[in-house]
Specification:
The protein has 157 residues and is of the alpha+beta class. The chain is built from 6 helices and 6 strands; from the N terminus they run βααβαβββαβαα.
Length: 157
């Protein structure tokens, strides 16, 4: 199974939204960057995903979710009322992808970006590379496990 990181503002779709309905599914849609879209298209059922809170007071990895439905055409691209509408997209040739995600667990306290940057050996992690602002990115297995060493929640279980 692959590992991923997705960024979101907690007020828009954060780990608390997933935790409110642990049996529920939330579509990860509205991604409008081609490279991030290509990463979404690679996601498979069962892949694990860090939820990273961005553009807020407490920035960092706030939880883990799992892909429960692999990439499919993002329905928002076809909705003229949506801010994610794309007039150049068609049902037979969709431009944008979505995946469905489900709650695994909350990481509390969250793992801050500063703590992640302080770890040795994460130079391949796109999150810590200068200028990388992608909202969807792969995380290799070693980096995933290294980051989880900072998870105080896991140590209590």
């Amino acid at each position: 199974m692959a590992k991923w990181l997705v960024k979101s503002e907690p007020s828009e779709c954060g780990i608390a939204d997933f935790a409110r309905d642990p049996e529920g599914v939330i579509p990860w849609d509205g991604v409008r960057n081609y490279q991030a879209r290509n990463f979404l298209a690679q996601m498979q059922e069962g892949d694990e995903v860090f939820i990273y809170h961005a553009s807020c007071k407490h920035i960092g990895i706030a939880g883990i979710v799992r892909v429960v439905k692999a990439a499919y055409a993002d329905p928002l691209q076809f909705d003229p009322e949506s801010r994610y509408f794309d007039a150049k997209s068609s049902a037979d040739k969709p431009r944008w992808q979505a995946v469905d995600l489900a709650y695994v667990r909350t990481i509390n306290p969250l793992i801050s970006l500063d703590r992640i940057k302080s770890l040795d050996g994460l130079t391949d992690l796109p999150l810590v590379r200068k200028g990388n602002r992608l909202s969807v990115m792969p995380v290799n297995e070693d980096d995933w496990n290294t980051i989880l060493t900072l998870d105080a929640t896991a140590k209590r279980h």
